[in-house]
Description:
Strand content: under 5%
Amino acid sequence: MNPMKSFILGSAVIALSAITLMSAPVAAAPEESGHEGQPFAHGRRMHGGFGDSARIISIALKHKSDLNLSSDQISNLETIRTNYHNQIAPLRAQLRSVDNEIADLMQQPLTDLELVKSKIQGSEKLRSELRYLRLEALEHGKTVLSQQQRDQLKALVGSKHEQSRGRHGQPS
């Protein structure tokens, strides 16, 4: 490979690594889909962090009296949230480690691109697992609440989202 192509490829990988490193803390953040307005989905209305499993469950727990949650429901939601945190913490740490390894590899005078490719594929597997765990926690959370409670939670999350947009000067 000529030096110019090598330089361009190396620069692109460094840029991607930097972006990956910056996004690592939000690896389990919601992604856009066609489930707008559903409190346990990851659609457009869930941006601002409300799509995160632990957050939506925390919102439900914070508003337990508004949602009229039973003690069993509260206990179940707390367990789901705790399990979710316990499962994602080591995966996030592994992801940060892999992303750091990629960045270190890119600092070498001659980068082993096959090794970088392997590390990138490993990081994507971790991101996939984080995404699955988030969806799993959301599904478990849905089973704890009645339809009426899910509707109330949807309204609460929607109003919080609108309040957040208003504070940041964004149109509703």
